């Protein structure tokens, strides 16, 4: 029979590692499944982390994992792919099944697998692209005019000029006009596509009339999506397709015994807030496990 861990942690990025560390400090057992890509896996660097600004994100996770393994014998890592997670007993026992059929049992679950999608945060990445002649901000689709104005004002500190593209939306153009301030203009042309240029972070804006323009970079936040279907399998309520509804300050989902932390449980995805939520998930789990003890 498989051993029963206190917690199954799905995700071995900064969130899952922070949660594991909190659990380890209270001698709670956990198995971490790192085989879920962090949302920022394409980024070579982490930013706004004291002592780790503009350093390799992979090395950060490697160092945190090594620290856990060297100092705490209650945390185990399983470098396998989890195919499904189900509830065996309501709020008491969960099962994670890996690709080759083996199952792992835990009293609690921490979802820390991240979301899919772009989040170009000008605090996390923008300083590196400072000095651009012109940059673009999109103001259509899921991006409101208010958000576009806010982002364009921040981008103005890093570039000579900022252009807000409304993709032919006259309503968005009217909402934006006159609000951003100096060195910010509005282009209402209909876009055909936006293409990544080979140089640095440059992007090429292609218009339906056949013309194009190159911009220095594109800060944009499309609606993210969860990177796995574990939340759906467990029956967790979602705020939107990329975010799970959780409590505060301990991020338990609407399913008893299931916690979610990091990008999948916050409106403001960033490494620092992810570390905070991972730690608080660990603390909340420790408290809930302690409450189960009756003798």
Largest sheet properties? 7 strands, mixed
List low-pLDDT spans.
none
Mean pLDDT, to the nearest integer, reads 87
Structural Rg = 22 Å
Q: Count every helix, treating DSSP H or I runs of 4 or more residues as helices.
A: 6
Q: What is the SS-derived class?
A: alpha/beta
Helix content: 10-25%
How far apart lie the N and C ends? 25 Å
**Helix/strand order:** EHEHEEEEEEHEHEEEEEHEEEH
The geometry reads as elongated
Q: What portion of the residues fall into strands of 2 or more residues?
A: 25-35%
Number of strands: 17
Name a few traits of the molecule.
three-stranded parallel sheet; alpha/beta; elongated; 28% strand
What does the secondary structure layout of this molecule look like, with pairings?
Blueprint: E1 4-10, H1 14-24, E2 30-33, H2 57-71, E3 75-77, E4 82-89, E5 93-98, E6 103-111, E7 115-116, E8 132-138, H3 145-155, E9 159-165, H4 170-176, E10 184-187, E11 191-196, E12 203-207, E13 212-215, E14 225-226, H5 230-234, E15 238-240, E16 243-244, E17 258-260, H6 271-292
Parallel strand pairs: 1-2, 1-6, 2-3, 6-17, 8-9, 9-10
Antiparallel strand pairs: 4-5, 5-6, 7-14, 11-12, 12-13, 15-16
Helix pairs in contact: 1-2, 1-6, 3-4
């Amino acid at each position: 029979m498989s051993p029963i861990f206190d917690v199954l942690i799905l995700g071995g990025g900064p969130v899952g590692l922070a949660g594991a560390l909190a659990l380890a400090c209270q001698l709670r057992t956990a198995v971490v499944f790192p085989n879920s890509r962090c949302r920022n896996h394409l980024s070579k660097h982490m930013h706004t982390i004291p002592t780790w600004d503009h350093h390799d994100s992979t090395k950060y996770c490697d160092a945190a994992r090594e620290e856990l393994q060297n100092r705490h014998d209650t945390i185990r890592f399983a470098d396998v792919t989890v195919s499904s997670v189900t509830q065996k007993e309501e709020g008491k026992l969960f099962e994670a099944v890996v690709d080759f059929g083996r199952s792992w049992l835990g009293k609690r679950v921490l979802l820390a697998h991240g979301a899919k999608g772009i989040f170009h945060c000008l605090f996390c990445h923008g300083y590196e692209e400072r000095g651009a002649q012109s940059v673009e901000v999109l103001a259509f689709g899921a991006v409101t005019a208010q958000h576009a104005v806010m982002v364009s004002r921040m981008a103005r500190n890093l570039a000579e000029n900022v252009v807000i593209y409304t993709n032919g939306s006259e309503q968005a153009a009217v909402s934006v006009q006159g609000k951003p301030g100096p060195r910010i203009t509005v282009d209402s042309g209909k876009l055909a596509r936006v293409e990544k240029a080979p140089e640095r972070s440059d992007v090429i804006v292609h218009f339906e009339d056949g013309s194009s323009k190159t911009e220095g970079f594109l800060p944009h936040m499309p609606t993210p999506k969860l990177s796995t279907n574990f939340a759906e399998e467990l029956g967790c309520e979602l705020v939107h397709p990329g975010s799970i509804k959780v409590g505060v300050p301990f991020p338990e989902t609407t399913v008893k015994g299931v916690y979610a932390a990091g990008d999948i449980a916050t409106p403001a995805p960033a490494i620092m807030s992810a570390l905070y939520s991972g730690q608080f998930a660990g603390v909340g789990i420790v408290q809930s496990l302690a409450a189960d003890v009756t003798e």
